[in-house]
Structures are given as structure tokens and as C-alpha cells.
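Q: For a teaching handout, I want to show students what a protein-ligand complex looks like in C-alpha cell form. Below are the inputs, and the small molecule is DP6. Please produce the holo structure.
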Amino acid sequence: MASPIYTATVTAPTNIAVIKYWGKADAKANTPINDSLSVTLDQADLRAVTTAAASTSFTEDRLWLNGEEEVGASENKRFRACVDGVRRLATDCRGVTKADWQTMKVHISSYNTFPTAAGLASSAAGYAALVAALAELMQAKEEFPGQLTTLARQGSGSASRSLYGGFVAWRKGSPPEWLDSKADQVAHEGHWPELRAIIAVVSDKQKDTSSTSGMSTSVATSTLLKHRAEVVVPERMKAMEAAIKAQDFVAFGRITMMDSNQFHATCLDTYPPIFYMNDVSRSIIRLVTAYNDCKGKIEVAYTFDAGPNAVLYLLEPNMVEVGALLLHYYGDKDHVQKWVNKTEFASAIASHKLDGSLLAAVDKTGLTPSTGNVKCLYATKAGPGPQVLEGECLIDPKTGLNTYIKK
Ligand code: DP6
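A: Here is the structure, written as C-alpha cells, with DP6 included.
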């Protein structure tokens, strides 16, 4: 009789940091020089879907990403750390003993529902999904809370934060073991029901410096980064956790923007300097600043990662006005439904009449309407951690091969 093929499929979310991780303390353990904090985004809008399969009939570990096999993936140290790490936590389940899980090879297939090229933290969702799928397959049991996040962290630092929903902190931890370099949930996804995010995908023709190499140059050359990690972030983490707990948007927004600014300042303080934001990114900063000035307080906050895309955090009552403003200056007015990920939101922003004084204030920043500078918008909110998916499987349970075809 053929050896059985065991499978499990999960979805995992992406996350966008409001206190940024930038700089590694230990490259091998992939631990950071400072704590960070992010919001886990709703998987209804952006997610990675991953199937993990195992069988005694498999002869090597194999990985398919977005339908294409990644040759040599089994030697990749990030992939190995996740697979071997979860395997060690396997339990007797599905009629397989813990000892037998150790000897089985795995086949993994994974895809994103958002363009990998858009630079939307796809590695965070991807490695979180890998760890969660393997953990589900082998019913892995943590020896201490957050142990799985220490494995996802070795795949990609930010992935540690995608194993929980809501508001998640990744504590930098301590050498030599770094077992305390792990994530914990500061508040669950239902904690702040009015909080929303709009992702503006900014056109980018240039290739970014990868986070890993950018961080290593920053650690080696930026004195600002050292000051940030030692002095600024510890204070900001406390203030940010308090703002989230109190649902204080003004404080949340102010710290979010200042932390994004400082992260990009450390990039500029790196030698040779790294530029992630472009002219469109900077014009979005001016738009947000003008909007907040008009309102007399912070009602929208921007943040930028290692690329030009903007993520705006705001509250539900401001969604339509801010969406309409983005449409006015950057959007494709003839194809609003295609430009925005949600039908109702697209209709609402298309029919919204913008206040004349608000437009005048944004015009004053020098911004003029120009279609195409923002490719699309994703309107989303906070969401839960990884979910087990019944009824979808990306590995053929008979052949053990990938079944996902990129649309
Ligand atoms: C700017 O997690 O992608 O998005 O650990 O090298 O895989 P590696 O880096 P990665 O870096 C993310 C950097 C950031 C800030 C953040 O998400 O905290």
C-alpha cells in the first residue's frame, strides 16, 4: 500500500509596524536591536495561503511559491529553521508518532492574495503561514508561550508578529539563546473596532534594497540607528502600548508617524544612504499633514516600510473622506471599482463631495491631481492570526505535488 500523505492548510495575515524593526542584533538568530509593534491586518483583504504536506514517500523537502517550484529551497537556512524547528515540537497525532514526523520530508505550497512585487510585507505573511501550516500538520506543542513566533522570526523577523491577531509586540530578547526574542499580543483584533488602514500602492520602478542587506549597512554605519534602538524605541514602546490600550488615536497616530520618519531618517543616515520613499510617498506625507492641520488634530497617520507604499491608519468615520481625497489626487476616476479593493467603499469615495477648504489646503502643498501615481488602494482593518482552512489544499493528497496555478 502507498504511504499516506498528510496535509494541513492555513491562511496567515500580513502586519504593518507602527514601531519599526530595523537592525539585527544577531544575524544567525535573526534577532533585532529593538522591540517593535505592529497591527495584524485582516486576511479577508491580504493573506498568504499555505499547505504543508508530509509523507514517508517524499524523498526531499520541496517548496512551491505562487505555483512555481523554488529549486534548492530545502537548503535555504530560513526555510530550514522553520521546518526543523516546528518538527522538534511535533506530537503524536494523525496516527503518526513524534519520532516518525522527524524522518518525514515535507512538501510546501504557498501563495499570496496580493502582489509580491507590491512590497506589501509578503515575507511576514509567508513565513507565518509556513510555521502555522507545519504546526497544524504535526500538532506542534509549544514548550513556552510564543515559541512558534521564535521560529517564524528565523524565517523573517516581521513574521514573528503575524502569528497573532490585533496589536502585536516583538520583544528584542537577550543573548545567547534569544528564546525571549518573541512576539506577544498587546491587544486582540476586536479591541479597537473603529481602527482602519488604507494601503496606497505607489508605483515603483526601481528595485528596493532588501531589508536584510539594508539593515546590515545601517547597523554598521548609522549612529542615529544606535541612538534610536537604545534611547528612543524603549520610551516609544511604552507610549504606544498605552495609546493602544486607551484607544487614543492622537497619540497612536503621532508616534506612528514619528517612528516611520525616524526609520527613514536612519536609512538616510546609513552610508551609502538608502532611499525607500519616493516623490509620491513624500506627497502623501504632505497630504496627511495638511489633512490633520485642517482638522486641528491628528486624524490620519502615515507609515512607510522598506518601499514607497503608504499605509494610512485612521478611524472609520474618516474613511470615506480620506479615500475620496486619495482618489482626487492620485486615483483612476474612470475605473474606481478596479482601483479600490471593496465595491461599497469605491462607490462611497466616488460620490463623496470634498470640502473646498480641505482641497485648498492640500493644493497649497503643491500637489496636483495626477492619475496613476497610486496604482490601487486596499481598505482594511485589524484582523486575527493564522486560521486553519478546511476545504482548500494546494498539494495533491495522492501525488504530493503542487496543485496551485497562478491566476
Ligand atoms: C521596515 O522582517 O522583512 O518592514 O528579518 O531580514 O526578513 P528580515 O526583515 P523583515 O524586515 C521588516 C522591516 C520593516 C519594519 C517592520 O516590519 O518592523
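A: Two things your students might notice: Residues 223-246 form the longest helix (24 residues). The pocket of DP6 is lined by residues 17, 20-22, 30, 36, 123, 156-158, 211-212, 305-306 (CB under 6 Å).
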